[in-house]
Write a structure and sequence with these properties.
The protein is an alpha/beta fold. Helix content is about 40%, strand content about 25%. Strands 1, 3, 4, 5, 6 and 7 form a six-stranded mixed β-sheet that branches. Strands 2-8-9 form a three-stranded mixed β-sheet, with no helix packed on it. Helix 3 runs parallel beside helix 6.
């Protein structure tokens, strides 16, 4: 009887030591968090620089040639890998390449923005690629990982493979801002968010969390594209009405914005004037 008791105590000690090796210094409420992000404000105004006190009115020469890029991550923080960034940018490019006021959307590698932050670096890239405005994509993703009551199952090696004792929560924000480097003005912006939760085993939690993080970027980007679509439609309406804080100059020499007529309205107006002239001539002939 005593022999069996000692044997059980020894087996329990070995199991507990195995548990400690798998998850050292971790109590029942052990958790961790990880954040990766790129900041539009920190990129445009590095080292505590302040935005200009007065806003300049940007002059947009349509159709626009737009530069599209991801902002580089802050510090050594990891974010979406190069393949995922390229995929997300191509989705944005394909969705808006058929806009009448856009002639071309040029995808620019983000490493061009890594060496020099702020508007001077942005203007250098603008000149290099001969684009009119820059569309900058930034992101913020926070992942939390916690152990719940199922973590007791980790007392057995089998539990690390079978029992889904780790819980993860991943929140993702993807933001796109269109700026005019020349006047240092924000033209429009749109964002999207995505939140995902799940449970996983100790062995598979890292893989499952990475997969959910990738899906989070895709979900937030899809919502951002929908919001950007609405923002662009509203921007076009504001420009036609003359309420937008921009001046639109067509590359054929005509202008718009700030209450000016677009070339479509000018054609309608000319047709109306010609019709009234013909009608007046017929009236004079009838008399």
């Amino acid at each position: 009887m005593r022999f069996r008791f000692v044997l059980c105590i020894g087996a329990l000690a070995l199991v507990l030591s195995g548990c400690a090796m798998l998850n050292p210094m971790c109590g029942p409420q052990c958790g961790s968090s990880h954040r990766s992000s790129s900041s539009l404000v920190e990129f445009l105004y590095p080292n505590g620089a302040e935005p200009p006190r007065e806003n300049s009115i940007p002059e947009l020469h349509v159709p626009l040639r737009v530069g599209l890029t991801f902002l580089p991550a802050r510090g050594a923080a990891s974010g979406p890998d190069a393949a995922l960034r390229e995929q997300l940018l191509q989705r944005v490019r394909q969705h808006f390449s058929d806009r009448k006021f856009v002639s071309e959307i040029v995808v620019i590698p983000d490493y061009y923005l890594s060496n020099q932050r702020g508007y001077p670096g942005l203007e250098a890239v603008q000149r290099l690629y001969a684009v009119d405005v820059m569309a900058l994509v930034s992101y913020d993703q926070v992942a939390h990982q916690d152990e719940n009551g199922w973590s007791l199952g980790y007392l057995t090696i089998v539990g690390a493979y079978v029992l889904k004792g780790d819980r993860y929560d991943i929140s993702t924000l993807v933001d796109l801002a269109v700026v005019d480097p020349g006047t240092r003005s924000l033209i429009l912006r749109a964002g999207g968010v995505d939140t995902r939760r799940g449970n996983s085993t100790l062995i598979e939690v890292a893989r499952d969390a990475r997969a959910s993080g990738t899906d989070g970027f895709s979900g937030a980007s899809e919502q951002m594209i929908q919001h950007l679509d609405a923002a662009l439609a509203d921007f076009e309406t504001q420009v036609r009405a003359g309420h937008a804080n921009v001046r639109v100059v067509h590359k054929d020499g005509s202008s718009g914005g700030a209450g000016a007529f677009s070339w479509q309205w000018l054609l309608v107006l000319l047709a109306l004037v010609a019709w009234r002239g013909r009608r007046a001539a017929r009236d004079r002939g009838a008399r």
